[in-house]
Structure formats: structure tokens, C-alpha cells
Amino acid sequence: MEKKHYAGVKAVLVIGASLATAAPAFAQSSVTLYGIVDNGIGYQSSSTSLGSTTGGHSAFKMVTGVWAGSRFGLKGAEDLGGGTKAIFTLEEGFSANNGAMSTSNLMFSRQAFVGVSNATYGSLTAGRQYASYYQLLSPYSPTTWLTGFYGAHPGDVDGLDTIYRANNTLLYMSPQLYGFKFSGSYSFAGVPGSAYQGSTWSTAVQYAQGPVGIAVGFSKINNSNVNGGTFGTDTTTSNAGGQAGISAVTNGYQSARAQQRFAVGAGYTFNSQFDITATYSNVQYLPGIGSAFRDEAIWNTGGIVLHWKPTAAWDFATGYSYTRSTKANGISSAASYQQVNLSEYYSLSKRTGLYALQAYQRANGQTLGSNGRSIINATATIGDGFNSTPSSSRSMVGVGVGMVHRF
């Protein structure tokens, strides 16, 4: 639920070239302390509990991490010689409203990894991190200027926001060569007797040269309960045992044995004031013998975002997306979701800004209820900031204003 592009301010610790008690020189090291604090006020026209289609009421409340998820982190690098560096990142999300961790019982819930990097050979990192699918597609995600909170495709069904982080991940990222960059990742669940059960694997390729950019990615998340059913705590996308990405869109399908995502993203920069991005994704939730639903569920989403920067201080963006599910599991009128977004951002300085966001979504058709069997009317759920509090009706309006500061 955040905008990806932000600038950190470095607090650099440089180890001396030599110590009085040692003859050899020590390599340079640096540690960067960085963070974001984001808070605002939001309104939604209808709010109810997940799975309900009645009892919705308008809600007006303080919201945190809308433009850029509130966080603090440490990044480090040590020169090992020959162009190779040891690197690490530790990053924790929090609520600026009450100081709570973004995910209970996870100290560094956003990222926690260590690895090596080389300008010629690329980087290899290990730990909790974003899969290759997200890392190379994110420049073309609608969340860059519309935010994930309001602007992610409904419920972030295609995983183009940052809510999917994979534990125990080994990730390779190539250097850029003639505009191309490749990445592959594999996440080990560690289930005894199986290297596949509960794992996540992903691959992606990106081309960016001049004003043109395009990326293609694939990701598969396997439930550690290999037959489906209850989401296994050993699943590599587990958030302290919790399942990511449950919304009114996917609520009836959360007992899947596996999730597959394929996406294409592209962008074109016309000049310093105008750029455009577009994405297409195909998402599949695959049932097992333990799943509550019986037929494969598929969602196809297309979206487009136009960004306009008329002055150094102002940024404006508008976006539209259309998501449609397939007819399956006894549903004759497949669910669809149309979403329109607007955003305005004013830079008070390089590190501080004010923002306003507006969104409208209309849902049609039918989907599965919480039990994975009953058929209910599809209800609206803007972005991924309202995953746990969707609308009780077909329509939903969301408005937010706030302030973000980076350090």
C-alpha cells in the first residue's frame, strides 16, 4: 500500500582505513538509516466486515501509510574488493497512528535479507524479500502514483503492490545489459519430505531503454497444506501465520492449494511532464481435494495510468482498471470490478509532501462467500487498503488526504 519511489537520507558510518593495532587496511563499510512517516484522514462510503453483503456504513477515520507505507530500516554495504559488496536490508513497517508493528510478531516484516552484489555479475540475496515477479514489474504498477491503498487493482489480486513478501527466499538479480534485466527467486518452505510443498518461485525479465520500458513476470505460491484447505503456516508468503491478499475478491478462494500470477507491464515517457503505464495480469487460484471450492478460479485485469507533472512541485495522476473473473464453481454471472482513481501530490520539499486521493469502484456479478461454497453478490473493495473493510454494496467511494515525510 505504498508508492515505490522515495529518497532516503543516509546516516553513513565509515570504518577507518586502518586501526592502531592492525597492520592491514579495512574495507569501507556503510550503514544507512532511513524511513517514512505517513499519516492522513480517509473516508469510505460503505464499510462492513469481510464476507458481509449487508450492514455497511460510511466511515471517516485516520489512516496511516497511504501514500507510502510508514517504515524505518537499515541498509548496509561492505566493499569486499574486486567490485563485490556484501549487502543487507532490515525494514520494519509500523502504524503512525498508534505505533503498532504492521504485522504482529514480525520485527522486520517488510524486508530482512543479506547477500552479495557485483556490478558485472548482479546480486544474490537471501531472506524475507519481494519475489522477482514484483521487483521487475513494480515500475509499471498502478501503485506508483495512485498508491496501493486506493490504487492497487481490486484487493491487489495480481500482487502488484507490496503485500506479498516471501520468507526464506533466495533471489538473483542480473545487472542491466543492453537494457535487459533478469531475475529469478525461490522460497524454501522447509516442509520435511518435500522441497515443493509451501514454496514460492518466481521469474521475471525487464527491458528499459530511453523512454520505453516493459516487463514480464510469473509467480507461483504453493500452500504448505499440499491438498489445499487451511492456509499452512509454513507457506513462504505467511505473515506470522496469516495469509496475505485476502479481500472481497478472493475471500471465497483462500483455501486454494496454489496461486499463480502472470503479468505484463509497460511504460512510455513522452517528456519530463507526461508518462503512461499499462498492465495486464492473469491470476489463477488452483483448488485441491481439501479446498472449499472445486473449480479453478481465474481473474484477468487490465489497467492504465497517466501521470502528469506540470511543475516541479505538483504531480497528478489518473487511472482506470477492469477486473473480470471466470464462470466457475456454479457461478453463472462472473464477478467484475471497474475502478477509477485520481491522485494529487504537492512537494513541500524533497522529503515532505501533501497528497489527496479519490477512487470509485463498481462491482457486478457474483462470487463465492467466506465458506467457499455459497454464491453471493460481488461487492466493491477499492485498492488494497480496504481488504478487511469492503463495501457491503456494489459501489464504493474512497477519499483520502495526508502528509508524508521521508528521512
Description:
With 407 residues, the protein is mostly beta strands. The chain has a single domain (29-406), classed as Porin, CATH 2.40.160.10. The chain has 3 helices and 19 strands. Strands 1-3-4-5-6-7-8-9-10-11-12-13-14-15-16-19 form a 16-stranded antiparallel β-barrel. A hairpin with a 3-residue loop joins strand 5 (111-118) and strand 6. It is globular and about 60 Å long. 43% of the residues are buried. Mean pLDDT is 93; it is low at 4-26. Homotrimer. Keywords: Cell outer membrane, Ion transport, Membrane, Porin, Signal, Transmembrane, Transmembrane beta strand, Transport. It is found in: Cell outer membrane.
Q: How large is the radius of gyration? A: 22 Å
| CATH classification class | Mainly Beta
Please give the domain count. Answer: 1
Oligomer: single chain
Succession of helices and strands:
EEEEEEHHHEEEEEEEEEEEEE
- DSSP helical segment count: 3
Physical arrangement of strands within the biggest beta sheet: 1-3-4-5-6-7-8-9-10-11-12-13-14-15-16-19
GO molecular function, one term: porin activity
InterPro entries: Gram-neg_bact_OMP, Gram_neg_porin_domain, Porin_dom_sf, Porin_Gram-ve, Porin_Neis
Protein name: Porin
Subcellular location: Cell outer membrane
Keywords:
47% strand, two-stranded antiparallel sheet, 16-stranded antiparallel barrel, mainly beta, 407 residues, 3% helix
Annotate the secondary structure layout.
Blueprint: E1 29-47, E2 57-64, E3 71-81, E4 84-93, E5 111-118, E6 122-129, H1 132-137, H2 143-146, H3 148-151, E7 166-173, E8 180-187, E9 200-209, E10 212-222, E11 258-269, E12 274-286, E13 297-308, E14 314-325, E15 336-347, E16 352-364, E17 366-368, E18 375-377, E19 395-406
Domain Porin: 18-365
Subunit structure: Homotrimer.
Keywords: Cell outer membrane, Ion transport, Membrane, Porin, Signal, Transmembrane, Transmembrane beta strand, Transport
